[in-house]
Amino acid sequence: MIALIPARGGSKGLPGKNIRELCGKPLIAHTIEAALHAEGIDRVIVTTDSQEIAETAKRYGAKVPFLRPAELAGDTSSAVDVYLHAVDYLEAHGEAPIEKFMVLLPTAPLRTAKHIEAALHEFEEKKADTLISMKEAETPISWYYERMPDGSVRNLGFDTEKAVANRQSNATYYIPNGAIYILDKKLLREKRTYYSENTVAYLMSAEESVDIDNRIDFMLAEVLMKGNSTQ
Fold this sequence. Notes:
Elements: E1 2-6, E2 21-22, E3 25-26, H1 27-36, E4 43-47, H2 51-59, H3 79-92, E5 100-103, H4 113-125, E6 130-136, E7 145-147, E8 153-155, E9 174-184, H5 185-191, E10 199-203, H6 215-229
Parallel strand pairs: 1-4, 1-5, 6-10
Antiparallel strand pairs: 2-3, 5-9, 6-9, 7-8
């Protein structure tokens, strides 16, 4: 299976984060190395609009067969279009037809080769259409409120009877953590979604699910990685 790593050059939350050094190597390198060491991954492809990211990715063993066009590298660019562009490019340049592929976001550096292998096993064992890695939601859905223009708040209407219940009384919900996606090209193109009735979840812990968007996330990832290396 091909692993795609999307890494655009622009980042407002933490400028240059994809090549910012984390525990001795660029952030993106942790994801590239995890994919390269995972059984079942045939090729690791980085899709980026940045020459600097491309050079860094190549240095750590990934393939960068193209630079992403500018219209697919903005803040509002669709991830679906980014993935379809990469798959279409690869097929147009000699790759065999790609039905399923994996996406690994470089902002999830605590995802390891073992996680990738376990997700692949889960996907194949369940004969799923797609797989999404997830973590347990930290905040019960019944606690979500909307602030109105006059300053008052209104519950959003999810499980409202438990709006003042403690966490343990609420049902357990799961949310995507951005670490691992196994996607279906046909589903993406026709429905523009990752989900079908046969989508399965690969569960990861909160510690493994750190997704770097800002400086605090980066600091947390660094602390956790250093802690793991001393165990």
